[in-house]
Design goal:
With 306 residues, the protein is an alpha/beta fold. The protein has two domains: 4-49 and 109-304, Aldolase class I (TIM Barrel, Alpha-Beta Barrel), CATH 3.20.20; 52-107, 2-Layer Sandwich (Alpha-Beta Plaits). It contains eleven helices and 13 strands. The strands form three sheets. The chain has a nine-stranded mixed β-sheet with strand order 7-1-2-8-9-10-11-12-13. Strand 8, helix 5 (145-157) and strand 9 (161-166) form a beta-alpha-beta unit. The model has no long low-confidence stretch (mean pLDDT 96).
Length: 306
């Protein structure tokens, strides 16, 4: 067994038989940790690099066993329900193991490259029939470059198609290390305006845009993924900026529009976090059609939803 096969990384989910994370049927590996804090993030459990605790209040039967078994005395009763003091909790898993109702769950686990590849390997027949493969998403996979590189190399050795879903915020050196093992970059673009991008994601987009241009210049297969967030980037000017940028790239396969959804809303409650867009509703079909028409005028191939 090679040393690379033993490299460990933090993963919060592995989703098999996915049809929305690249071409064909895919196995998607979700890395833990992300440098952005997007207001609309639907995988908040992927933001922190460390293991976290999910608590499903609707499943809790208020038996009190979690309080009795917590070695840190971090759980107390408030309003009839157990509440965890995050300052005391060390995510030891005692409360999870003792919960009769499965109301508690740890999110995130350390896995070796070989362990992840073994899961991916199970679905090779589906990849072959559907022109699918493995997708590395998150969180942000480029935050764990050695782990990602090990997985990509292992997949290519087995002839498995690889896709990386990235926000693009990483050094070019990191992209340089992995790019020859990546068949498809699914590159997220939220906003072109720098101030707006910093406001809604917490970071500058200078490096993101620079890496996108350089990947395109190198001739890589790129699908630009644009989340459509009402009130944030769905106005004509924001979309025109995206259209102009996309049209200026020397090589781009398509622009994929991702309508905002509220699927991840419950996750914020499980993590005891506040969701910034709790009042925001998904864009209408008419609005999505308008944006598609606007971007199509730039001569771009536009897709919706995956």
């Amino acid at each position: 067994m090679s040393e690379e096969a033993l490299i460990k990384g933090s993963v919060f989910d592995i989703r098999r038989y996915s049809i929305h994370d690249g071409p064909g049927i895919r196995t998607t590996v979700f890395f833990k940790g992300c440098p952005l804090s997007c207001w609309w993030c639907h995988n908040p459990e992927g933001q922190a690099r460390t293991t976290e605790l999910f608590y499903r209040k609707n499943r809790c039967i208020r038996c009190g066993v979690c309080m009795e078994t917590c070695p840190q005395n971090a759980i107390s009763l408030e309003g009839g329900y157990p509440v965890t003091d995050k300052r005391k909790c060390v995510i030891c898993g005692s409360c999870v193991a003792s919960c009769y109702a499965d109301a508690r769950e740890t999110v995130g686990q350390e896995m070796e490259v070989d362990d992840v590849v073994a899961v991916i390997d199970r679905d090779v027949p589906f990849y072959e029939e559907s022109a699918g493969g493995a997708t590395f998403s998150g969180g942000e996979p480029l935050m764990q470059p050695e782990f990602l590189l090990g997985l990509l190399r292992a997949c290519k050795e087995k002839g498995i198609h690889t896709a990386v879903d990235t926000c693009g915020l990483a050094s070019w050196e990191t992209f340089e290390d992995i790019r020859k093992y990546v068949d498809l970059f699914m590159y997220d673009l939220k906003l072109v305006d720098g101030e707006e991008h910093r406001k809604f994601t917490g970071v500058s987009n200078d490096l993101i845009l620079s890496n996108l241009e350089t990947l395109s210049l190198r001739g890589h297969k790129i699908v630009l993924r644009v989340p459509v967030i009402p009130g944030i980037n769905d106005d004509d000017e924001a979309m025109r900026e995206i259209g102009r940028l996309a049209a200026s790239l020397p090589h781009l396969d398509a622009v994929c529009l991702l309508p905002y959804h509220r699927i991840g809303l419950d996750k914020y409650a499980r993590l005891d976090r506040t969701y910034s867009l709790s009042e925001t509703r998904p864009p209408s079909a008419e609005k999505m059609a308008e944006i598609t028409d606007l971007l199509s005028r730039f001569g771009l191939c536009i897709r919706t939803g995956g």
